[in-house]
Design goal:
Elements: E1 4-8, H1 11-28, E2 33-36, H2 43-54, E3 63-66, E4 68-70, H3 81-93, E5 100-101, H4 110-124, E6 128-131, E7 153-156, H5 159-165, E8 179-182, H6 185-189, E9 194-198, H7 204-212, E10 230-235
Parallel strand pairs: 1-10, 2-3, 2-6, 3-5, 6-9, 9-10
Antiparallel strand pairs: 4-8, 7-8
The structure holds 2-amino-2-deoxy-6-O-phosphono-alpha-D-glucopyranose.
Length: about 240
């Protein structure tokens, strides 16, 4: 098995390709389970989905499952992933909030929250998982060294990820949480199809390692080499080291 690479000239094109793929799934299965990522990479998909909905796609029964959440931010915090998905997905598409599923990022009961979310995601059966990738090859918040067998769990963010994400916290590194709850690598591998989006030169090394490197826990995304339906949608810069 190997990872299929598709190269695009713009994020808009990536967004419309993935959105129409989601549209095709939803037309066949109105209550499909779609795995959604946060970060800047998937925004083009959510934007393009808005057009699909304006053109008549009915997403009222679709269930949306987040990959991860920061621990220690309330759901109403503007940088919580709950708010991110509410702002860029739920509100623009007119989705009922009860159809958005995000792991609870509370400090207390983290293990219980993780177990509950793992069961929820596995029972739902993700039809298509959208992914971004961290500069160090992380997917979800599975940092380098995370076991390929991991299920949804609570983890610690690396300093490099905290620094990369500080831009969402007005570059105040002290404001970036230290820990997270995330679907594990084995959880992500359960998705029927995976579409990973990466743009920009800062992602080119991670893309190289994920696609052409050894399958190793040093690069979490390299686990996707063992998935039977995975496509990376890249711009020229992100694919420049392949
Ligand atoms: C965060 C998220 C990941 C995301 C990554 C890259 O760490 N937990 O799911 O893929 O950021 O984000 P961006 O697309 O903004 O580069």
């Amino acid at each position: 098995m190997s990872i299929t690479i598709h190269a695009y000239d713009s994020q808009e094109n990536i967004g419309s390709v993935v959105a129409s793929m989601i549209g095709a799934i939803v037309k066949k299965k109105p209550n499909a389970a779609i795995g959604v990522a946060t970060g800047s990479s998937p925004l083009c998909v959510y934007k393009a989905l808005e057009s699909e909905v304006q053109n008549g796609l009915d997403v009222s029964q679709v269930q949306w499952y987040a990959l991860d959440e920061y621990i220690g931010l309330s759901r109403s915090h503007p940088q919580s992933y709950y708010q991110f998905l509410k702002c860029y997905l739920v509100d623009p598409l007119g989705i009922a909030e009860c159809n958005l599923h995000v792991p609870q990022g509370t400090v207390e009961g983290c293990q219980d929250n993780a177990k509950r979310y793992e069961d929820e995601v596995i029972n739902a059966g993700i039809d298509l998982q959208i992914l971004g990738i961290g500069e160090n090859g992380h997917i979800g918040f599975n940092e380098p060294g995370t076991s390929f067998l991991s299920k949804t769990h609570c983890g610690t963010l690396t300093e490099s990820t905290r620094h990369a994400n500080a831009r969402f916290f007005e570059n105040e590194i002290g404001e970036v949480p230290y820990s997270c709850i995330t679907q594990g690598l084995s959880t992500i591998m359960h998705a029927r199809a995976v579409r990973l989006i990466a743009t920009g030169r800062t992602k080119s090394r991670a893309i190289h390692d994920a696609v052409q490197g050894q399958i190793s826990e040093k690069c979490p995304a390299s686990i996707l080499q063992m998935h039977s339906d995975v496509v990376f949608l890249l711009d020229r810069d992100a694919g420049s080291e392949l």
